[in-house]
Specification:
Blueprint lengths: L1 E6 L2 E3 L5 E9 L1 E12 L6 E6 L5 E3 L7 E6 L4 E6 L8 E11 L5 E4 L3 E5 L2
Parallel strand pairs: 2-11
Antiparallel strand pairs: 1-3, 3-8, 4-5, 4-9, 5-6, 7-8, 9-10, 9-11
Length: 120
């Protein structure tokens, strides 16, 4: 019914840049508050960045200044621009999507994630 799909990850070297995408599709009216998380095996899933429907942006201290979140509401898509990648940025990046569906109440949905590996 509601589909959340991340893309844009891959193998990168320190100093490289990546642009991740999160596309929401299905029987939806619009996207609302959107967040990016990342996770490595055996660890908790950590919050990285947020884009509120009202326009407010927020970032974890570890990524502020290097990561930039943006959105295209007409395409039901949110982006995460990552600059100056570091090894500690390695992990699976997940999109947490606030969605107003055609049917039922609004809610949050997880994507399956897109992996990012930063290694020299």
């Amino acid at each position: 019914q509601v589909h959340v799909v991340e893309s844009g990850g891959g193998l990168a070297r320190p100093g490289d840049s990546l642009r991740l995408s999160c596309v929401v599709s299905g029987s939806i009216v619009r996207i609302e508050d959107m967040d990016w998380f990342r996770q490595t095996p055996g660890n908790e899933r950590d919050w990285v960045a947020r884009s509120l429907e009202a326009g407010t942006e927020g970032y974890a201290d570890s990524v502020r200044g290097r990561f930039s979140i943006s959105r295209d509401n007409a395409k039901n898509t949110v982006y995460l621009q990552i600059n100056n990648l570091q090894p500690e940025d390695t992990g699976v990046y997940f999109c947490h999507a606030g969605v107003r569906p055609v049917f039922g109440q609004p809610g949050f949905y997880w994507g399956r994630g897109t992996p990012v590996t930063v290694s020299s």
